[in-house]
Amino acid sequence: MTRSRLPAVLAEIADAAGVEAAWTIARAHGGTSVYFPRDAQPGHWLAELVGLEAARKICRQFSVGNTGVNVLIPLARIGQQQERLVRALEAGQSAAQAASAAGMHERSAFRARKRLKAAQGKKKKERRPDDRQTKLL
After folding, report:
1. Which of 1, 103, 109, 130 would suit a FRET pair with 75, their CA atoms being 20 to 30 Å apart?
2. Residue 105 gets which letter from DSSP?
3. Which CA distances in Å does 13 have to 4, 42, 87, 92, 132?
């Protein structure tokens, strides 16, 4: 999933430590407030969850002066459902199967598949030259 689909707090975490770290935190602590210390130490819950290096990056991103901060982690249920839907479609599942796996409506899967195909089509168009026209020089 792209950073643009994430809620603001998760997008900030993604900027610091990557999208996967943001989703890992959302899955584990979504809907609750957590404390990010000024600097994460080995054994801290955040370091255990996303790794020490990523935890330190997150803590640096959110620290205020010499102190840590309490942060409300959003549930991001819709974003998680969309992520599961896109992954299922990219894996070749039908719209019905992808919708079922994501807990979404089948129509959402059809729309998502259409957006994926449009994005892939744009990439393909950008790569190949238009052979219907001759070169001027």
Report:
1. 109
2. -
3. 12, 19, 21, 30, 47
Q: Parallel, antiparallel, or unpaired: how do β-strands 33-36 and 69-72 relate?
A: antiparallel
CB contact set of 105 (below 8 Å; sequence gap of 6+) = 99
Q: What is the pLDDT along the chain (137 residues), one digit of tens a residue?
A: 455 578 899 999 999 999 999 999 998 999 999 999 999 999 999 999 999 999 999 999 999 989 999 999 998 778 778 888 999 999 999 999 999 999 999 999 999 999 988 888 776 655 556 667 777 66
Structure tokens of 74?
């959003």
DSSP letters, 58-102, are: HHHHH-BTTB-EEEEPP--HHHHHHHHHHHHHHTT--HHHHHHHH
Name the residue with tokens 């994005």: 119
In this structure, the number of other CB atoms found within 10 A of the CB of residue 59 comes to 22
CA R_g for the chain: 20
CA-based nearest residue to 36, from 4, 13, 6:
13
